[in-house]
Amino acid sequence: MQLVTLTGEPWADYGLIDCGNGRKLERYGDYRFIRPEPQAMWAPASDAWDAHGEFVPGSDEDGGGRWQYHQPTPREGWPLNWREVTFTAQNTPFRHLGFFPDMAPVWDWMRGKLDGAHAPECMNLFGYTGVGTLALSAAGANMVHVDASKKSVEAARNNAILSGMADRPIRWLVEDAGKFVAREVRRGRRYDGILLDPPKYGRGPGKEIWQLETGLPQLIADCRQLLDENSRFCFLTVYAVRMSALAIGELMRQHFADLGGTIECGELTVREEARGLLLPTAIFARWSR
Ligand SMILES: C[S@@+](CC[C@H](N)C(=O)[O-])C[C@H]1O[C@@H](n2cnc3c(N)ncnc32)[C@H](O)[C@@H]1O
């Protein structure tokens, strides 16, 4: 299987300004932040970074740590735009800003795959604050947005309001992704496109345990059952797990082989503005027609 590099280019409201020495400097609208980035082992372009704040990690590699602010930053968040979508960026205790800018090329790719489709049915699993859901909705899709966290779904609905998309056909569901998909299979439902962005570890609303390595095979098998010969795409991203893109590519190939179309896998990257170098952020596998 051929490895593909999918690259996020800077846009008006987001850019990876510089990275190196285990950290990265990014701009989110008018605000700039420094965050840990263990893969940036090279030297940065500049050693004089001017930021509004920095996330200083704790001793625990997977969590802990806190934001330190050097200049005033709106604690309640501030609006950002990506194409037709408006959403709130906010410093979260999880070291990110409440959305994942490296997903932008994924949103564009999925929208391209929907070209010419009439009111396609799409699903966003582990949808978090909903930017992917709104990106697809703005392209004309009827959406099902699934996340285990009531708070995340509320934030996603608020982003729909901010985007002027509160009346779009979007079902906002606080559900366990695995259970919901299995139920959709039993109901004989079909979709034109599915986006899955599962965390390494999570909990459903009923305290169902989600563990990527053990849960993914069944979830991919079930997603396949929801797609048919007229479907357009299935896109899986995996972050922060010791796993090769080929592993998720082969998993997808096994389950999707009978569906025709193309399977690809590779790395999701963000282009640094200072020198154009590519910072890897996730691995992905995708099926499309
Ligand atoms: C932040 S997003 C995914 C981004 C990225 N993949 C990561 O690991 O950080 C993870 C989302 O999955 C949701 N989630 C976790 N376990 C879940 C489950 N069992 N069913 C549905 N959503 C779940 C969380 O509420 C969260 O919004």
TrEMBL record:
Task: State the Gene3D superfamilies in the record.
Answer: Golgi alpha-mannosidase II, Vaccinia Virus protein VP39
Question: What are the entry keywords?
Answer: Methyltransferase, Transferase
Per the record, the domain of life is Bacteria
The entry lists its GO molecular-function terms as: methyltransferase activity
| Protein name in UniProt | Class I SAM-dependent rRNA methyltransferase
Q: Which Pfam families match?
A: Cons_hypoth95
Q: Which residues form a coiled coil?
A: none
Query: Which SUPFAM superfamilies would you find in this protein's record?
Result: S-adenosyl-L-methionine-dependent methyltransferases
Q: Which InterPro entries match?
A: Glyco_hydro_b, SAM-dependent_MTases_sf
Swiss-Prot/TrEMBL GO biological process terms = methylation
